[in-house]
Structures are given as C-alpha cells and as structure tokens.
Amino acid sequence: MPVGLVLSDIDGTILDDKNFIDPKLPAKLLRLRKMKIPFVLSSARSPEGMYPIAKKLGILDNPIACYNGAYVINGLKEKNSTVISSHEVKISELTEIFKILNQGYPTVSVNTYSEWKWYVNQPDKWTELESGITNLEPAVTDLHKFIQKHPVHKLLLIDSKKVIADLRNTLENVNFAHTSFILSKDNYLEVTNKKASKKEALKDLAQYYKVPIENTMTLGDNFNDVPMFKASGLGVAMANAPEKVQGIADKVTLSNNDSGVTAALREYI
User: Fold this and answer.
1) What Gene Ontology molecular function terms does this protein carry (predicted)?
2) pLDDT by residue (tens digit) across 223-252?
3) Which distant-in-sequence residues (6+ apart) come within 8 Å of 170 by Cβ?
4) Which of 86, 26, 76 is nearest to 56 (CA)?
5) Domains and CATH numbers, the chain
6) Is-contact 108 163, C-beta < 8 A?
7) Where on the phi/psi map is residue 259: left (φ > 0), alpha (ψ -120 to 50), or beta?
8) Three-state SS across 192-232?
C-alpha cells in the first residue's frame, strides 16, 4: 500500500511523556516533503496551541486538524488560512447548554474555542491551570453575547470530578441531536459537534489531497484514535497505547518515548 497522506495525533504520539517532540521526526518529515507526502497533525488543541509544535516540525504550511477534527485548515502561516472543513456546535443547542450551566452549575469553568482563539467570561483557577499546560492566555469576553455572533468549535467545561460527572449525566439526558460530550480527563468535559472527529478529518483531508482513503496512514495512542485507525489504510498505534487500542490497530510501533512515529514512518513509507 503506497502511503499518500499521514494523519498523526500529538500528545502521547509525537510528544514524549515530558512533552518533548520526537527529536528524529523533523528530519524524517523533511524527507516526506520531498516525497510529496503530507504529514498532518490532529489534536484537541486550538490552532494557537498547535502552532509551536508545527513550527518545530517545519510543517506550518501543511493542513492541520484542530479540536479533534472540528476545524481543519490548510496551514498555520496565516490566520486567514483557508478552511477545509468546519463543524461548529449548533447555536440552538449551545444556547441550551449555557442555560443549563447558568441554572445548575455556576462553579463550572466554561472555556470556549472559536476558530483560532480561546475565550472565557473571566479567568479562574481552572483557566490558570490550563494556561500553564498550553502556554496560552484566554481572551476575556461576554460569552453569552459572543456565541450569538461567532462559531464555536469546542467548549471545555472544567470543575471537580464529581461536578463534571453530574454535568455530563445531565447533558446526555437532554438528548441533544447534534452535540457530543466526551471526557478528556476525569474533570474535563469536551463539547463538540457530533460530526467532529479525527475520522471525519481524515476523510476531509483525503478528499482535499485527492488521495484514496486506503492510501492513508494514521498514528495515535488512545481510544479516540481508533475510528481513524479503522478508516485509514494503515492504522499504527504507539507501544504506550492501551492494549485494546493496540489490538485494533493494524500495526504497533515503538513508544512515544522511543521515537515511535519516526520508526513507523521509516518502516511503512
């Protein structure tokens, strides 16, 4: 199977346990560029959060799949980059979610992501923690007014594990038709359009590059990567992935601490 497109997760995949980039990867990606094989990053992060990683890898002009596929753009060199696909949270459902938060969950930190940026009503202890992780600062605005005028690609709702578990149960019982609720940590609830996924991003990118889906390769380390493994021609799990994930993937490479992505690219391309 000749690989014509690679889609890769970031955390636990190209980043090691200390959040350092696979040191062998930039040189390998330079070789892929010469072979005209696009290497695309996919993550729950915002474009701003992915920018420094893409820059170190030398792929700022490659497309990038943000918010787990909710917002796919054709590069990070310019903030007016062409949008390849965009799946926003429906405004009617978003308004209802905000109503539920206001009435029953006043302590929940509401983090709103729209296109390139991260927005909050006001900073709190949770946004400070998230800033420390991402090295980004949110813009402060009136979210109730903001969501009426701007697309929302993701909400990140943060509080104690107990509160978030209760909130998730409440939201799922509403049976929203177009919105999904996924825990990325015990106390992190991510809210996106149901159409947003790495699998759909892979399909959009394959169409964008006119590469048959069977000629695509995907790399990842967790359960949210499984759908793109199944959709691609070659799904490669990291050795640090859970055993069930490894069992579903077509191949298993070395761990994220052992330059597993570079090893996989060398072996299969």
Assistant:
1) magnesium ion binding; phosphatase activity
2) 889 999 999 999 999 999 999 999 999 999
3) 100, 104
4) 26
5) 5-86+196-268 (3.40.50.1000), 91-193 (3.30.1240.10)
6) yes
7) left
8) EECCCCHHHHHHHHHHHHCCCHHHEEEEECCHHHHHHHHHC
